Every structure is written in C-alpha cells, then in structure tokens.
Amino acid sequence: MIQLGNYNTLKVLRSTSVGLFLGDDEGTEILLPNKYVPEDFKIDMDMEVFCYLDNHERPIATTLKPLIIRNGFAFLEVAEVGEFGAFIDWGVEKHLLVPFKEQTVRMEEGRKYVVHCYLDEKTFRLTGSSKVDKFLSNVEVAYEINNEVDLLVYRRTPLGWEVIVDERHKGLIFESDVFRPISIGDALKGYVKNVRTDKKIDLSLQPIGAKMLEPTAKMIYDKLVQSDGFLPLHDKSSPEEIQQMLRMSKKAFKKGIGILYRQRKINLQEDGIHLL
C-alpha cells in the first residue's frame, strides 16, 4: 500500500509521455512526473520516492526531499496566509496547509513555527498543525536515566523549555539545567534525567551523573587550551561567572576540575586554573 506523506520504495512499471508510473506489490500505481525522472532509470528497478497529493488532489510521487513527513514534527516557515489557513513550505511543490483551527496562535507569513504533519481522516489530505501537544503521548514511556534522545524545542514556559522527545513524547528541560543559548525550533541531543511517576520526562542537555564527568572535564580542558592555559575561575567563583565562561553549572564545573586535577592536567591556584 502506497503511504501518502511518507517515503515509499516502488517499482518502475512503465515510461510514458508524462513520466514514469511506479507501483507497489498490491497493484497500486502512482505517477512520477518527467521533471523528477532520473536519467539512469530502468524498467523493474526499485525507486524510493515521496508520495503526496498535488495541487489537483491527485496522488503523485517526487524525488524531492520534504522537510517533514507524515506523523513527524519540524520547524517550518509560513510561505503565505490564505482564506483557509497558513501554507507552510515543507520542501515540495504544494505547500502544507495549517488550517486556522489547527493554529495555537494566528500564523504570519515569513515566520517559522513547530508543526506536526498528519493525514486528516475526514478529507484524506495531509494537514499541518501547530497544536503539537495533542499528537504527543506519555502513556507508555520506556526510558532509563541517561538514555540519549532526540529533542525538538517547541515552547518556553516559566519552568523552562518544553520539548518533543523522539517525535513521540513531551518533555521538559528546566531553566536551571540550561547552560547555553537555546531557542524554539532547535533540534538537540538530550539525556533523560528523570521519568516521574506520572510519566512526565525531565531532560538534560548533558549526560547525568558519572557519565557527565568525562565530557565536562574535556570541555574545561578545551577551554583552557583556547585560553592559553589559564582560566580565572576557582571554587569561590560565582555560578554566574562559571555559566558565562563555560556554559555549565558550578556543580558540573567542580566535578570537571576534580577529574583534571586527579589526572594531573591542571594546577589550582588562588588566581585560577593553570594548565600543566
């Protein structure tokens, strides 16, 4: 079965004046227009294409790479606003419609928003929505502490940054755990800090506990090398000074310099850290 809004591996059936007709194992056919036909095609060869509905609501295939696929999330720009909603540029010829009822705030042309792409069961059309919460579920969460996950930042709250976790779950990075600039739309690697009894997921942008020590120490070491072997930081430095210079918490800083000191890579003096 050919899946609209997704990549499909299909067989080249025949060549016509308008393009190639591709098919699946169930006998369903779809057109790949001439402008997307590769020069080295052969009948019966397999080809990976993206399938969606064209401007005339007909199923069509393309070799263009969309910026979002069905059931996915992405940070995309509004190409124009029309009578029925906002039209998002998602990397293929026909823009993705986000109806007004699927917008958390009224979208504006030229601005970017985190959106979800889904197949509308009533119209059988691919549709966008910025109401991402309703497409996320934390009912079944199977993570352990320090598991690495993919994150997409989609909202800022008084507590911190709400993120989409592995395109399935909702998570939170507390403001106190952010030690570098981040923005809505950022795609990041994160680490599971805690899964609460209510299945809410707390996240960190750096590994937790023992796994945190080595990369933190390396970060401090690299900064020392870049700074001619000296950093004006010590145990009495304020958390703000450490965050400004190293983008990490004071707790992480103390653990990192502890490793470097035990490995005899640094010397701790009253004026700061010296590289040996």
Task: Fill in the keyword field for this structure.
276 residues, elongated, mainly beta, OB fold (Dihydrolipoamide Acetyltransferase, E2P), five-stranded antiparallel β-sheet, 4 domains, 3 helices
3D structure, described in words:
With 276 residues, this protein is mainly β. It has four domains: 6-62, Beta Barrel (OB fold (Dihydrolipoamide Acetyltransferase, E2P)), CATH 2.40.50; 73-133, Nucleic acid-binding proteins (OB fold (Dihydrolipoamide Acetyltransferase, E2P), Beta Barrel), CATH 2.40.50.140; 148-204, Nucleic acid-binding proteins (OB fold (Dihydrolipoamide Acetyltransferase, E2P)); 210-275, Winged helix-like DNA-binding domain superfamily/Winged helix DNA-binding domain (Arc Repressor Mutant, subunit A), CATH 1.10.10. 14% of the residues lie in helices and 38% in strands. The protein is built from three helices and 18 strands. The chain has helices at residues 210-226, 239-246, 250-262; strands at residues 6-15, 19-23, 29-33, 46-53, 59-62, 73-81, 85-89, 96-99, 112-119, 126-129, 148-156, 160-165, 169-174, 187-195, 201-204, 230-231, 266-269, 272-275. It has a five-stranded antiparallel beta sheet with strand order 3-2-1-4-5, with no helix packed on it. A five-stranded antiparallel beta sheet has the order 8-7-6-9-10, with no helix packed on it. The longest helix has 17 residues, at 210-226. It is elongated. The termini are far apart. The model has no long low-confidence stretch (mean pLDDT 92).
